[in-house]
Design a protein that fits this description.
Helix content is 34%, strand content 34%. It is an alpha+beta fold. Strand 3 and strand 4 form a beta hairpin. The N and C termini lie far apart (24 Å).
Length: 65
């Protein structure tokens, strides 16, 4: 399976032919974090943004990422 990688995190890449959309989730962490886009480049940007949001949230809450 192909995955996205960013700052040590991995994300899945899935295709919805019904919606003509790419989507995925960050793997091996809790909570569940999803992202989606119409293009591969957009999916990668959405994945990076999801990781940045997660890391900022952890920083604000004082939890370990």
């Amino acid at each position: 399976m192909k995955t996205l990688r960013y700052k040590g995190y991995q994300g899945s890449i899935e295709v919805s032919s019904k919606d003509n959309t790419l989507f995925g989730e960050v793997l091996f962490i809790s909570p569940l974090i999803n992202y989606e886009a119409k293009t591969v480049e957009g999916l990668e940007r959405a994945f990076h943004a999801a990781i940045e949001d997660y890391l900022n949230s952890c920083l604000i809450q004082g939890t370990q990422s």
